[in-house]
Amino acid sequence: MKIAVLPGDGIGPEVTGAALRVLDALAIAGIEVEEGDVGATAYRRHGLPLPLDVIDMARGADAVLFGAVGDPEFDTLPRNLRPEQAILGLRRELGLFANLRPAAGWPGLEALSPLRPELAREIDLLVVRELTGDVYFGAKGERRTEAGERQGWDEMAYGEEEIRRIAHTAFRAAAGRQGHVTSVDKANVLETSRVWREVVSAVAGEYPGIAIEHMYVDNAAMQLVRSPGQFDVILTGNLFGDILSDQASACVGSIGLLPSASLGERQTAYGTFGLYEPIHGSAPDIAGTGRANPLAAILSLAMLLRHSLGRDAEAGRVEEAVGRVLASGLRGADLGGDASTEVLTAAVIRELVQPDQGAA
Ligand code: NAD
Ligand code: IPM
Ligand code: MN
Predict the structure, then answer these.
(1) Positive or negative, the Cα torsion across 207, 210, 215, 220?
(2) What's the predicted TM-score (pTM) here?
C-alpha cells in the first residue's frame, strides 16, 4: 500500500505530520510513504507549484494525503504559478471529481458552536461537492470594456455527464445514510444551474428510495444555520460546495475539524484511489505557532484508510479516538482551549493505543 504525502505550506506540514504519527501508531504492516513538495514550498525549491514528478508520484500511489497550499507571499504571482494551482492541478490531473466533506456534531462540542447547542447537536450532514468543473475550471481572463476599463471574467459551465456522475455519488451516499439529498443550485438565475437541476432530477428518478429536494444556494446558506438538522446529503457544484462546507465546519465548531475525501473512478487493489485533505487552508496567521488543530488532518487519514485502503476497522478506531479526545474536554485554540497540535496528537495516539486509560 503506497501513500503519497504532500504536506504543502503553512500549517499543512504541521497537521500532515500529526496524521502520519497517528498512521505510525496504527502499525499497519506494508504501508509505504513517499513525500513530495507542493504549493509555495515546491515553487521555492523547483520553480513550480506542482512539479510533474509529484503528479507521477500521486498517480503511482493508492492514496494521497494532502496538507494545504497557499502563501500570502505568492498571492500576486500569475495564476498558473500560484501555490493553489497544486491542489487544483491534482484534482484535475487525477480526475478527482467527487469531494466528500462530512460534518457532524461531536458530543461535548455543542456549547462551542456559534449555533445554539440544540441546533449544533443535530448536525449530521455530508457535502458532496463536484470538484473538477464549474467556474473553477472554465475559461477565464481579463479583457477591456468598451470604456477601456479592465474586466475580469470567468466562465461558469456544467456538462450533463459531469452533473450526472456527481449526482450518482450523492444518491449512493444517501442510500447509506438518511436517504435524503438536497441539491443546491441557483437555478432561478443561472443557466448552469438550470441544466444542473434538470439532470439531478433525472438521476433522482433512478433512486426511488431517496428523497430529493432542490434548494437555492442563498436559502441553503440560511437554512444551514437556522436548522442544520434538516440536511443529510448536500449535493452541489464546486463553488457553492466550497463555501457551504466552510460554513458547515463553523456550525460544528471549527474548520480544524473537517476532513475531506476527493475520489474519482480509478480503483486500486484495496479500494478507490483518492486524495485526502482537511477542508481548511494553510492558515498563515497561525503557521509555526504550534496551535493548528490536527484533527481535520487525522480524520482525513481515517477517510483514506476507509476509502482507499479498505481498512474500515482502523478508520473507525481513529475516529473513535478523536471522539474520546474531544469528549475529554481537550481543546485547541480554535475551540477556545490551549491544547497544542502536539498535545492533541499525543492524546489521539494515547486513545488509540490504550483506549481504557482515558484522555489526558
Ligand atoms: P484557512 O482555512 O487557511 O484559514 C481560515 C481561518 O481558520 C484562519 O484564521 C486560520 O487560522 C483558521 N484555521 C484554519 N485551519 C485551522 C486549524 N487546523 N486549526 C486552527 N485554526 C485553523 O483559510 P484562508 O485564511 O482563507 O486561506 C489561507 C491560505 O490557504 C490561502 O492561500 C488559501 O488560498 C489557502 N487555502 C488552501 C486550501 C487547500 O490547500 N486545500 C484550502 C483553503 C485555503
Ligand atoms: C478548498 C480550497 C480550494 C478550493 C482552494 C485553495 C483552491 O478552498 O479545498 O476548499 O477552493 O477548492
Ligand atoms: Mn475552501
Answers:
(1) negative
(2) 0.97
First to last CA, the chain: 33
Q: Per-residue DSSP letters for 129-168?
A: EE-S-GGGTS-EEEEE-TTS-EEEEE-----HHHHHHHHH
User: Which tens digits make up the pLDDT trace of 9-66?
Assistant: 999 999 999 999 999 999 999 999 999 999 999 999 999 999 999 999 999 999 999 9
Pairing of strands 32-35, 2-8: parallel
Express each pLDDT in 83-116 by its tens digit: 999 999 999 999 999 999 999 999 999 999 999 9
Superfamily of domain 1-104+255-360: Isopropylmalate Dehydrogenase (3.40.718.10)
Nearest CA to ligand 1 atom 1: 281
Which residues have a Cβ under 8 Å from the Cβ of 171 and sit 6 or more positions away? 181, 203, 204, 206, 207, 210
Residue owning grid cell 508520484: 57
Q: What is the CATH number of domain 110-253?
A: 3.40.718.10
Residue from 62, 232, 242, 334 carrying the catalytic annotation: 242
Do the Cβ atoms of 270 and 1 come closer than 8 Å?
yes
Report d(CA 11, CA 270) in Å as an integer. 30
Q: Is 285 a catalytic residue?
A: no
Residues of each domain in the chain carrying CATH 3.40.718.10: 1-104+255-360, 110-253
Question: What is the Å distance from ligand 1's center to 199 Cα?
Answer: 33
In 3D, which of 135, 194, 204, 139 has the Cα closest to residue 166? 204
CA distance 23 to 190: 44
